[in-house]
TrEMBL record:
It is found in: Membrane. Residues 131-250 form the Fatty acid hydroxylase domain. Its main location: membrane. This is Sterol desaturase family protein. InterPro entries: Fatty_acid_hydroxylase, Sterol_Desaturase_Related. It comes from Dolichospermum heterosporum TAC447. The keyword Cytoplasm does not apply. Keywords: Membrane, Transmembrane, Transmembrane helix. The chain crosses the membrane at residues 12-32, 44-65, 90-113, 125-143. It comes from the Bacteria.
């Protein structure tokens, strides 16, 4: 019975992503369907949506939501306090380098991925997004677990400089990890093809769950304790959500009896 409940909760997450992406795609379709976008315009649009949403969502979480103590307590599902850490400040150089990487990534994706115009059908789009999140979660799980092996761990250590997490830790990666994670995220695009409205919607919603997952809060999609457990325990919880960790038995659950973190030893 518990396995069925867990499965339903995992599917709920995937459906929430698919529905949210579909609604967002509808808005992009209304804005863009009468416009003829060339290659450069699509690249710039995709890059701008990703960049603006990343900083806007991160600032919204860190400066607005977390400024309200009662709201922060309400949205936090942590079971163990983590010592507060000082996070690296934004620098002009860091922002410029980050945006150059993001722009180059957008250019490569739009250039190489097959473009497929799917129209505006709700069911078709929701099905596409559902397959997209399940596939993306699997690709991320595999890559992330590999990054925790001795062979690739050095690449991933920069991201694990922080046990305590903040939304913008989501973007704190080495260049090699950035490339690996980007490839795993866009691999389904090369499998399923892309429509610019779907791509923009996916980027926006993807930034929401990625930033939320590192925020230590439970706001829209991901329980705050899921990725916290990964950062504090270092092992387990390799996926975006818990489905693939359940499948491959790497889930680091909460020990409800003592309200503490369960140790995971896989290597």
């Amino acid at each position: 019975m518990q396995k069925l409940v867990n499965f339903c909760l995992d599917m709920e997450f995937y459906l929430k992503i698919a529905i949210s992406c579909t609604i967002t795609q509808q808005l992009f379709f209304l804005l863009l369907n009468k416009l003829k976008l060339n290659f450069i315009t699509e690249v710039l649009l995709y890059w701008l949506v990703g960049t603006i949403s990343f900083y806007a969502i991160g600032i919204f979480i860190e400066k607005l939501i977390k400024s309200d103590d009662s709201l922060t307590r309400k949205l936090t599902a942590r079971v163990k306090k983590v010592k507060k850490q000082s996070f690296p400040n934004f620098t002009l150089k860091g922002i410029i380098i980050g945006e150059i990487k993001a722009l180059i990534t957008a250019l490569i994706i739009i250039y190489l991925a097959p473009e497929v115009h799917r129209g505006n059908g709700l069911i078709l789009n929701m099905g596409w997004f559902f397959m997209r999140i399940v596939a993306a979660d699997f690709c991320f799980y595999v890559a992330h677990r590999l990054l925790h092996t001795k062979l690739f761990l050095e690449i991933h250590l920069k991201h694990h400089e922080f046990q305590d997490t903040s939304s913008f830790v989501a973007g704190h990666k080495s260049l090699m990890e950035y490339i690996i994670v980007t490839i795993t995220d866009v691999l389904p695009v090369f499998i399923f093809g892309y429509d610019i409205t779907q791509l923009c919607a996916w980027t926006l919603i993807g930034n929401i769950y990625n930033l939320e997952g590192h925020s230590s809060l439970s706001i829209f999609f991901i329980p705050s304790n899921f990725h916290d457990l990964h950062h504090t325990g270092f092992h387990g919880n390799y996926g975006i959500h818990s489905f693939w960790d359940r499948v491959f038995k790497t889930l680091n659950p909460i020990n409800k009896k003592n309200r503490n973190y369960v140790s995971c030893q896989f290597y």
